[in-house]
Amino acid sequence: MSIETVTPGTSLDAGPLTLIHAPDAVPGWWRSAVIYQVYPRSFRDFNGDGIGDLAGITEELPHLADLGVDAVWLSPFYRSPQRDAGYDVSDYCDVDPIFGTLGDFDVMMAESHRLGLRVIVDLVPNHCSDQHAAFQAALAAPAGSPEREMFIFRDGTGPGGHEPPNNWQSHFGGPAWTRVAGPDGQPDQWYLHLFDSSQPDFNWDNPAVHAEFERVLRFWLDRGVSGFRVDVAHALVKAPGLPAWGGRADGGSSDGFPGHEAPMFGQPAVHDIYRYWRRILDEYGPDRILCAEASVDLHRLAHWVRPDEMHQAFNFPYLHAGLDLYRLRSVVTDSLTVLDGVGAPSTWVLSNHDVVRHATRFGYNGLGPRDGDGIGPADPQPDHDLGRRRAAAASLFMLGLPGAAYLYQGEELGLPDGVDIPEHQRQDPTFARTGGERLGRDGCRVPLPWRAADKHLALVPETPPGCRFRRRSRPWRGTSRPLRRRRTSRCTGTSFGSAAT
Known about the structure:
- The protein has 501 residues and is an alpha/beta fold.
- It is built from 11 helices and 15 strands.
């Protein structure tokens, strides 16, 4: 084990200055894993109600095992009003009835382990649903009460407190503050929500919030999960005093990532939370992991995966690099250099439930849709054939890189985004909060076509008739450990696959 001291002011200067090099001394399955993201509501519908469910996931686990992936990441399946596709959680320790029951979850876990698959679950610690019992208690309690201290309530400004406490904007559009009525029915304080008004932010300065999430972590660890993907990991702690911020609503700077000065993202104290969580996971053994969704630039990414914090952090600079050869080479080279400095692997990703699928993005030769926006029928359309070919090459390149890789459901088929979603069927709060100016992320979340006859809003009808890709799949990962060569699955006949190998 070697020790390196970083000079203050360098790219790795963030908190503790001692970095430990031990990439080989701490082996772990997660260092070179392929992890498959399942978005439950659109993965597989078992009971025929039109919504994917846990039983449907269980039914198709053999397909994922045949692909050769190491683990499954489940997007939220918790009890929720579904105002933001389950990222508005009303009970972190129960399954939403639209997906099944805790019993269904346990059956899925047992089948996953039988097939040699690990399961990682989504965790949403920045905010909850306004229907969560804790927030309902806060609404019924007076200002300054312990119930309100679970969240970020503040008095308004201006005459009568009619103006928000500061000028922060919601990531989904509009103000990041909503005023509530007090127990007497009169206008009262405002609460902070960096996202939708139905998603109040927790107050992570309150030890009671820490205790609640320790309970949640242990609940799912005791049920056998192998770890957590932490949603909006950079946003939990806000700067003292909640200073005004005139930048982008998401804290972003011109390069697309939150600026170092943004008061709502990347505060130093957030790392103390994850150091404590890491100690909790380590109690359960060395194979339990944390993966950060941290929207930070590449040189700050290493701060999240130091030896006593997260195991993985999504490499979003890689996702944004596109097909520009020089930019891609720079991101890959810098990623390996920066992350090796803390003994961590890079965690590569090309698509997920928040961005236009890369089979669609790569169908443009110029600028495509911006982050968080979809494509409508009136927008310039990509070249779908070109996009699929480029996506195949990009996926194979990614899977050959050293480190871990995350795949989004349908990526093995080269699926494009849905572009013809009627306005009345759009569910992303971005669409509603911007008055339709931004379409949001519904296009990348449409249901998977398990058979050629199944409807997929963006399906290009080239899948061989009757082909269920579970039965004709080939592994993502081969046997060459140095490069971890992996192959995509394919259907026989006219190829709709990500690559025909």
